Amino acid sequence: MAQQTTIFDKIIAGEIPCHKVYEDEHVLSFLDVAPLSRGHTLVIPKERAAQMDQLSDESAAALGRVLPRICRAVMMATGATAYNLLQNNGAEAHQAVMHLHVHVIPRYPEFDPGEPGGGLGIGWPAGKLEDAAGLAGAIRSALGA
Question: Do the beta carbons of residue 22 and residue 85 sit within 8 Å?
Fold first, then answer.
């Protein structure tokens, strides 16, 4: 089944404008049009992949190489004191655009999460690790290790 065309495909193709902050052969980065805070930036691979597990090693490496540079630039340009990186995979994980994308969301001490401009509010209801040895072994097996 072919992946549906997304707004990000149209941005990559130049059919929809964006406020570009970075581009190379594999990666495009631009400001989010509905930002959670000043400087909220998206970083996307040019490869069509909906989720991280579908991305090629080459595109994943390119994304990983550029993310720290973009984070540093966002911090420097905005004066933010911290930031969140957010990357969702699948509708159940709150992914809205089915083209892999990483959010760089600056945080500022003068804003509380949940306020406009406050950034990303996170709840973390930690669970209990069960069957750790069995689960780790299953993951190692799936990796071929």
Answer: no
- How would you list the strands of the sheet with 20-23, edge to edge? 20-23, 27-31, 41-45, 102-107, 82-86
Non-local (6+) Cβ contacts of 9 within 8 A are 48, 99
Tell me how many degrees the CA angle 88-89-90 measures, rounded to the nearest 5: 115
Taking only Cα atoms into account, the Rg of the chain, rounded to an integer number of angstroms, comes to: 17
Mind telling me the catalytic residues? 101
pTM (two decimals): 0.87
Structural domains in the chain, sorted by start:
7-122 (3.30.428.10)
Distance of CA 143 to the CA centre of its chain: 23
* pLDDT, tens digit (0-9, with 9 covering 90-100), for 11-38: 999 999 999 999 999 999 999 999 999 9
Q: What share of the chain is helix, strand, coil (3-state, %, to 5)?
A: 30, 15, 50
